[in-house]
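Deliverable D4.2, example record:
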Amino acid sequence: MEEIQFILESTQESMNGTIAHLEKSFLNIRAGKASPQMLGSVFVDYYGAQTPLSQVSNINVPDARTITIQPYEKSMLHPIEKAIMIANLGFNPMNNGDVVIISVPPLTEERRKDLVKQAKSEAEDAKVGIRNARKDANTDIKKLEKEGTSEDDCKTAEETVQKFTDAFIKKIDEHLVIKEAEIMKV
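Output generated by the structure prediction step:
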């Protein structure tokens, strides 16, 4: 029975990890208004080491269309600009000698639809992750059944895993509906 409990806990943990990954992926899909998370994938060459932008500068959002990046060291202005260009986020950074300024362009209808497709793709990947966790758990439960664990306990465990799966798939769908609404809101 302890083995079954362990399988159930690790399955739930794995599914929670999948949801966390989906939420992080959704943060990188911009929904029209400026946000520091948009630059989460930007790494700057800081004395030879690839360092996250947030560790070498202060990132602010003064309004819905602007991101300002204030480096801790003035010598980092050009490397930050270069890193943003290399990250290929569709931004054109400007440097005024003190800060790097990014104007976030409004999204076109076509771009919004592309972003919704991207969000749906991320959600589908997450669902695959949930189903894989279910498959692994059921395989482990079947092994336990062959090793002598009671059939009733195994059946109950499989039903519990299916309940987890259904609940997490529903969570993914809810996250997707929210993200789609956020992207399509003009």
